[in-house]
Specification:
115 residues, alpha+beta, disordered C terminus
Length: 115
C-alpha cells in the first residue's frame, strides 16, 4: 500500500519533501563546520545543493540558498536565495533542466539523478 501512496504524489510534492529533508539536515550541521551544505541531486557532472544564508527574513527565519555546481568545469553555474520551500521547488526544477542541458553539451557522461 505504501507504494500506491508514493505513486500518487506529484513531482512538486516530492521535490518539496526532498528540499525540506535537506533543509532539516542543513540545520543539524554544527555551526562553524566545514560541511556547510547538503547535496540535493546529482545530474551527470552537476550537483544541486542547499546551503544556509547569512541573513534572516522579516519573520526571523533563516534564508537558504540553492546552488547549481558543474564539477566538470569546477564552477558555480547558478544560485538562488530562497525564503520558502515552495519557492525553492521552482528553482530546483530549473536547475535540473540547466544541469541536463550542461551535460548534453559536455558529452554522453550520463544524466542520472542521484539523491
Amino acid at each position: 500500500m505504501q507504494g500506491s501512496i508514493v505513486s500518487r504524489m506529484t513531482d512538486k510534492t516530492l521535490s518539496e519533501l526532498r528540499i525540506a529533508r535537506a533543509y532539516v539536515k542543513l540545520l543539524c550541521i554544527p555551526e562553524g563546520s566545514f560541511e556547510a551544505s547538503v547535496s540535493l541531486a546529482w545530474i551527470g557532472n552537476c550537483e544541486i545543493r542547499i546551503f544556509e544564508g547569512s541573513q534572516a527574513n522579516s519573520d526571523g527565519m533563516q534564508l537558504f540558498w540553492l546552488e547549481l555546481l558543474d564539477h566538470g568545469a569546477k564552477t558555480s553555474v547558478d544560485s538562488f536565495s530562497c525564503h520558502e520551500i515552495e519557492d525553492a521547488v521552482l528553482v530546483f526544477e530549473d536547475f535540473i533542466s540547466q544541469a541536463g542541458r550542461l551535460n548534453e553539451a559536455s558529452g554522453p557522461d550520463g544524466a542520472e539523478t542521484q539523491s
